[in-house]
Amino acid sequence: MELSEAIRGRRATRQFAQTPVAKPALLELIDAAIQAPSAINAQPWEFTVIQNRTHLDRIAASSKAYMLTAMEHSAAPQHLRDLLKNPDFDIFYHAPALIVISAKSGDWAVEDAALAAQNLMLAAYAKGLGTCWIGFAQRWLETDEGKRSIELPPGIQPVAPIIVGYPAGPMPPVPRNQPRVRWFD
Ligand SMILES: Cc1cc2nc3c(=O)[nH]c(=O)nc-3n(C[C@H](O)[C@H](O)[C@H](O)COP(=O)(O)O)c2cc1C
Prior knowledge:
Layout: H1 3-9, H2 23-33, E1 45-50, H3 53-72, H4 78-85, E2 97-104, H5 109-126, E3 130-133, H6 135-141, H7 144-149, E4 156-165
Antiparallel strand pairs: 1-2, 2-4, 3-4
């Protein structure tokens, strides 16, 4: 697939076929992720792959509860609170797999992991897979309990929880605003 097609065609996927994603395909995504640049070539990333439904549901439930409490003291939009209060809302959209990209804590951990995340999402799209970064899971995964739930060793911080699966259908385009550009000619 042309790079431009992947960049423009990739969409946050929120409806999945229940077809599992085979391990070699997930490993290919991880291989694409680790081709990302990283500050001083630290390559600080680690990957956790979760396909067990009970485990996914546990993370989703804990993340929802955590986010709802956190939102009590924030200016989060009401529709997000309503969504999280809905017992039928699965923050992982019933995706068959979750890959959490974590990184050794350091000055550039978030940047490095985010670059790996974008590589992973583009590579997934090129293989016919759908992905979505799930920020809803991020804050709880950052807690001690969250880190323990995915057995992250000390000093490793979770950055990008990304669901992966085969899309249930074509994804509509999501228009982009005009870029705000300042030129100094
Ligand atoms: C850091 C980050 C966190 C996100 N968190 C969520 C989330 O919790 N739930 C969700 O449905 N989408 C989430 N998204 C997906 C965005 O909503 C989506 O990328 C955006 O609407 C643009 O759509 P597109 O990816 O199809 O271009 C997140 C995206 C990013 C980059």
